[in-house]
Write a structure and sequence with these properties.
By secondary structure, this protein is an alpha/beta fold. It has 7 helices and 14 strands. The longest helix is centred in the N-terminal third of the chain and has 18 residues.
Length: 277
C-alpha cells in the first residue's frame, strides 16, 4: 500500500499548488490512497464546503481538519453528509461530523483518524488524545491493518510522546498544524512511520502560508489579520508512505514539490476557478 499525505493546504495558493503538482506527482509517486490536511484551505483558516468539493475533484480522497474545523458554517451544516471530511475524533461526541472512518480503495480498506492536541489551542479543546488513541486504534485495526493518524497539535513534545505511545499500533502518525516541515521523518521500531510536521502546501516564502508583512504587523500591533494570502514560491509538501501487508510502514519520504509562480495579475483568475463546486 502506497499512501500520499499532502501537508496542510493553505489558502488559494495552496489549492493552486495542489492542482498544478498532483498530476505529475502521482506519476512519479503512484499512490493507492491520498489524504490531505485541509484546516487552512479557505482564507487561511477553516475549510469551506465548496473548497472541500473542489479538492475532492482534484483527487484527494480524505480531508483532515483540526482546530479550525467549525470555522466555516457551510461546512459545519453539511459535515454529517460529507464522509471524506474528518474533524478531530477526540471532540465532544455531540459535535457534528466524525473523526475516524474506514475507506475502501479498490479491494483494500484504509482507516484514517484525526486527533487534536491539548497544548496551545484556545478556541477548541479536545479530550485527552493519549487516553483516546489505544481504544481508537484497536477498533480501527479490527477492520484493516492500514491505519493512518493525523495528529493536529502545537507542541513537539506532545507529538513525539504520542508517536511513542502509538508505535506498533498503526501504520503512521503524521504531525500537522504548525505548517513548517520538519526533517525528522522515521519509521519507529514497531513499524509506525512518523514525522513531527508534514509542512504546508502553499507559499513557501511566507509565514505559515500567509503574507509576511501582515504577520509582522500583527506582532507589532497585536491585531491579527489573515486576509492577505501569500503567493510567492508555491509548493506542495507532504510525505509518501510505503506500507506492507501487515500494516507496518517500510518507509516514509518527505515531499517538496515546487510549482511555477503566477504573475500577480493572474492570481485573481485562479482564485475564481478554485471555488467552483
Amino acid at each position: 500500500m502506497k499512501v500520499l499525505y499532502i501537508a496542510e493546504i493553505v489558502g488559494k495558493a495552496g489549492v493552486y499548488a495542489l492542482k498544478m503538482a498532483l498530476p505529475e506527482l502521482k506519476k512519479q509517486k503512484p499512490a493507492d490512497f491520498i489524504i490531505a490536511g485541509a484546516d487552512g484551505v479557505t482564507g487561511g483558516n477553516g475549510l469551506g464546503r465548496n473548497h472541500a468539493a473542489y479538492l475532492r475533484k482534484l483527487g484527494v480522497q480524505v480531508l483532515c481538519t483540526g482546530e479550525c474545523c467549525f470555522y466555516k458554517k457551510d461546512l459545519v451544516e453539511n459535515l454529517g453528509k460529507i464522509p471524506y471530511v474528518l474533524r478531530p475524533e477526540n471532540l465532544n461526541p455531540q459535535a457534528p461530523g466524525i473523526g475516524a472512518r474506514v475507506y475502501t480503495t479498490g479491494t483494500t480498506k484504509v482507516a484514517v483518524a484525526v486527533l487534536l492536541g491539548q497544548s496551545g489551542f484556545t478556541r477548541l479543546h479536545g479530550d485527552n488524545p493519549f487516553a483516546r488513541i489505544p481504544v481508537l486504534l484497536e477498533r480501527l485495526r479490527r477492520e484493516t491493518p492500514y491505519v493512518i493518524v493525523d495528529f493536529h497539535a502545537e507542541a513537539t513534545a506532545e507529538k513525539r510522546t504520542l508517536f511513542a505511545l502509538a508505535d506498533g499500533a498503526c501504520s503512521a502518525v503524521i504531525g500537522s498544524h504548525t505548517r513548517v516541515q520538519t526533517a525528522d521523518e522515521t519509521v519507529l521500531p514497531g513499524g509506525t512511520a512518523v514525522i513531527t510536521d508534514a509542512g504546508r502546501t502553499g507559499s513557501r516564502n511566507s509565514v505559515g502560508g500567509v503574507d509576511k508583512d501582515e504577520r509582522i504587523k500583527e506582532y507589532l500591533t497585536g491585531i491579527p489579520d489573515w486576509t492577505r494570502e501569500a503567493w510567492e514560491q508555491p509548493e506542495l509538501q507532504g510525505v509518501y508512505l510505503d506500507i506492507d501487508s501487515r500494516g507496518k510502514s517500510l518507509s516514509i519520504e518527505r515531499i517538496q514539490w515546487p510549482v511555477p509562480e503566477l504573475p500577480v495579475k493572474e492570481t485573481g483568475a485562479v482564485k475564481e476557478e478554485e471555488i467552483r463546486d
